[in-house]
Amino acid sequence: MNVVCIKWGDKFNSFHVNRLYKMVKRNLQCDFNFICYTENTNGIDRDIVVQPLPDYLLETWWWKLTLFENPTKVPTIFLDLDIVIQNDITHFKNYCIDDMLYLVKAYWKPYMSKKEVEFDVDINSSIMIWNGDCTDIWNKFAYNIDYYMIKYKGIDRYLYYDQPDKLLYLPEGEAYSRLYGTNKYNYNLYGHGIKRLFFRPDIPVCIFDGHNSGINKPFDDEGYNGFEKYWN
């Protein structure tokens, strides 16, 4: 199995890569290669396989789509650098379905049925799990990169609206959002600022969507308080 992450620019550094690696080692009970795609290898743990980013003019989250440029011959899990793994994720390998892509379903966005926010979606690519050929995801984007980068704020929207036939979703209880909620009964409304921070230690992964968003500055500083035990 391959576990992969991407570090580009200065939002994250080697601390975040090494932190994620520690959590994966603690919570994935099978043989795996941990691979970081990056343009800056400084400070990355020597046990991590480092690969260069391809030579494209991309930024931020759009780099994730390059992971689908070629088929993979082994089950692959992508993890964002700002997630926290709280419990065992070995069973995530069961979501590796040939030629399909598993994503997080944002069960904490029940208001999505009202379509209150243009192009908003109730999925999240902080975790992506796949095996085999998902090259259609990259090929369609690569054919008109500028168009999609202008049209959508992030790959979640591209995947949701332009690749729906390739997507499957993790069941409720596999991940929750530190900022936005856990399910349809317990959530903050996106874009309305912080009401509370969520903590569910029984759920395997906490995702930090909304981190460093500007409007949620206190969350940037305080959101990880109490989570240090998961990587120390």
- Structure annotation, total helices: 5
Terminal CA distance reads 24 Å
Please list the strands of the largest sheet in the order they lie side by side.
3-2-1-4-7-6-8
- How do the SSEs run, as a string of H and E? EHEEEEEEHHHEEEEEH
Largest sheet: 7 strands, mixed
User: What percentage of residues falls in helices of 4 or more residues?
Assistant: 10-25%
Rounded average pLDDT: 89
Rg calculated over all Cα atoms: 17 Å
Q: What would you call the structural class? A: alpha/beta
Shape: globular
Strand content bin: 15-25%
Return residue spans where pLDDT drops below 50 for at least 5 consecutive residues: 213-218
